[in-house]
Amino acid sequence: MLIFHAATCHFCADELPHLLAYARANPKVAVWIVAPSDLDAVKKQFADAPNNLRIVEDAADKDAGTKQFNAYRAEGTPTQILVNGKGNITWRGTGFSVQGANPFEAGKLPLE
Predict the structure, then answer these.
(1) Which of 7, 13, 85, 111 has the highest Cβ tally under 10 A?
(2) What values do phi and psi take at 36, rounded to 5?
(3) Count of CB atoms within 10 A of residue 84's CB?
(4) What is d(CA 112, CA 93) in angstroms, rounded to the nearest whole number?
């Protein structure tokens, strides 16, 4: 799962505890955080994340997050993209709200 996240996005902040709970409850799902900017602030937000949640970064390319954002055609943050083992996108979500647009509720993500 790819999560496009910005440290200053209020919807991302709302999503954060739900995302962390989801990652802890589903340790076999690899969750990658892609930050198009302010990587240091994003690292602080995810400092207590479980081992299956990692932040995409490339020390040789400070624009790696922006390039991924563009490559996956993320329209804003947060954007959630589920990629299967073959590399195919199987689900995409944009935005977050506890009521209605919370993909981390039980049974919402098509993981099979």
Answers:
(1) 7
(2) -70, -10
(3) 12
(4) 17
Q: How confident is the model at residue 105 (pLDDT cuts 50, 70, 90)?
A: confident
pLDDT tens per residue, range 12-28 = 999 999 999 999 999 99
CB 2 within 8 A of CB 32: yes
Which residues share a beta bridge with 62?
A: none
Q: Topology of 2-94 in CATH?
A: Glutaredoxin (3.40.30)
Q: In what order do the strands lie in the sheet with 2-4?
A: 53-55, 31-34, 2-4, 79-83, 89-94
The pairing of beta strand 89-94 with beta strand 79-83: antiparallel
The DSSP symbol for 105 reads: S
Measured in residues, the chain has a length of 112
Q: How far apart are CA 48 and CA 93, in angstroms?
A: 24
Residue 83 and residue 70 in contact, taking contact as beta carbons nearer than 8 Å: no
